[in-house]
Write a structure and sequence with these properties.
The chain is α/β, with parallel strands linked by helices and about 400 residues long. About 30% of the residues lie in helices and about 25% in strands. It has 2 domains: about 5-180, Flavin prenyltransferase-like (Rossmann fold), CATH 3.40.50.1950; about 190-290 and about 300-405, Rossmann fold, CATH 3.40.50.10300. It has helices spanning about 20-30, 50-55, 75-80, 90-100, 105-110, 125-130, 130-140, 170-180, 215-225, 255-265, 305-310, 330-340, 380-395; strands at about 5-10, 35-40, 85-90, 115-120, 145, 150-155, 160-165, 190-195, 200, 205, 230-235, 245-250, 270, 280, 300, 320-325, 345-350, 360-365, 365-370, 370-375, 380. Strand 16, helix 12 and strand 17 (about 345-350) form a beta-alpha-beta unit.
Length: about 400
């Protein structure tokens, strides 16, 4: 996802530097060119050789190193960089960057960069909360830097509080968000639903399905990476929250209906990937239902059909995409659903097909519209999400009203 991109990774003298090799390794696996620049103090925590082994590039520390294969080292590095990413960032280096000081290889190079810049503060809680540090971070924001807020927790100094650097997997997500895709969805509002719903039988048991939410979360993350303003209405899952996505947690089909319809009219694109229960118990027992000797029947009642409601109450220029998980007659059942619910696209897949369906990391979708069917290859759910968004963007033309009369 980062093939051909170059990240100038600055490492300063904080204990959190020991986590950065994991980030570098993950970036290299994404085919990213990683140029590490360290401060002298950072080399007290971890050696430059560690990063040279991971990146196959010389780690730079000394501004006047004559072994650098550049005409003017810091200028050439600045020209090459697609992103400046400094983690961990100490209070000292934050102060230097906020005031334009350039007294080592890192600060000199960064001052020459005109690409996007992200900084990750990591330090003692009192140092982080000190007004001088907060003023310097605000100044960097005014200069166009993106500041990643530290986490709270137990720090190396033994203090509990904010100042802890986020984990490498989160930092990777931040970089992927910035660099992995063209921002072709800027200005669009996208609503995605994901995961299962849970319909209570009693205080102990509930009805649900096998959905993990992976496909919906991949769509939300992909849309955010392309610049959209994304709202994700999610049933219960164990997935981490996508970066720069507003997540609304729900449990039942009724809760999902209420949240989706509350914000649906302001959305440009709605993608219903959740596996919502079609039925719920007609009565929820207040106490645990005890096992008896005979059979047990549970009366069920229909839940509200969210997709049908959206199709009946769509706004001008709104694009509606549903999902269809089938075991037989995939195309016929999915096309009938498309027409019945007055939507623009159905992303259909079969539970019977290897690599598709619930829980896995891959999927094979067929995109069904009134114009025809477009089968997609078996790919990762992240790739499937981007292919789906590509097709939606090709069809969703601003200024063209989409509704029953258009078909």
């Amino acid at each position: 996802m980062l093939n051909g991109k170059t990240v100038l990774l600055g490492i300063t003298g904080g204990i959190a530097a020991y986590k950065i090799p994991n980030l570098v390794s993950a970036l290299v696996k994404q085919h990213c060119n990683v140029q590490v620049v360290m401060t002298e103090n950072a080399t007290q925590f971890i050696t430059p050789l560690t990063f040279e082994a991971l990146t196959s590039r010389k780690t730079l520390v000394n501004t006047f190193d004559r072994n650098i294969d550049y005409k003017i080292g810091h200028i050439s590095l600045a020209d090459e960089a697609d992103l400046v990413f400094i983690a961990p960032a100490t209070a000292n280096v934050i102060a230097k960057l906020a005031h334009g000081l350039a007294d080592d290889m890192l600060t000199t190079t960064v001052l020459a960069c005109d690409c996007p810049k992200i900084i990750v503060p990591a330090m003692n809680t009192r140092m982080y909360l000190n007004q001088a540090t907060q003023d310097n971070l605000e100044k960097l924001r005014q200069y166009g830097w993106q500041v990643i807020d530290p986490c709270s927790g137990r720090l190396a100094c033994g203090v509990e509080g904010p100042g802890k650097m986020p984990e490498p997997n989160f930092l990777l997500e931040v970089i992927l968000h910035e660099l992995s895709h063209e921002k072709d969805m800027v200005g669009k509002k996208v609503l995605v639903t994901a995961g299962p719903t849970q319909e209570a039988l009693d205080p102990v048991r509930y009805l649900t399905n096998h959905s993990t939410g992976k496909m919906g979360y991949a769509i939300a993350q992909a849309a955010a990476a392309r610049g959209a303003q994304v709202t994700l209405v999610s049933g219960p899952t164990n997935l981490p929250r996508p970066y720069r996505v507003e997540v609304i947690d729900v449990v039942t089909a009724e809760e999902m209906f209420q949240e989706v319809t509350r914000c649906s009219t302001s959305q440009d694109i709605i993608i219903k990937a959740a596996a919502v229960a079609d039925y719920r118990p007609a009565r929820i027992a207040h106490d645990k239902m005890k096992k008896g000797e005979g059979e047990l029947s549970i009366p069920l009642e229909r839940t509200q059909d969210i997709l049908a409601y959206l199709g009946a109450h769509r706004t001008p220029n709104q694009f509606l995409c549903g999902f269809s998980m089938e075991t037989t007659n995939v195309l016929e059942n999915s096309r009938a659903k498309l027409l019945r619910k007055n939507i623009d696209m159905i992303a259909a897949n079969s539970l019977r097909e290897a690599g598709a369906g619930f829980a896995g990391d891959t999927n094979r979708l067929t995109l069904i519209t009134r114009d025809g069917d477009t089968p997609l290859p078996l790919v990762s759910k992240t790739e499937a999400a981007h292919l789906l968004l590509d097709h939606i963007l090709n069809r969703h033309q601003p200024g063209t009203e989409i509704g029953p009369e258009s078909f």
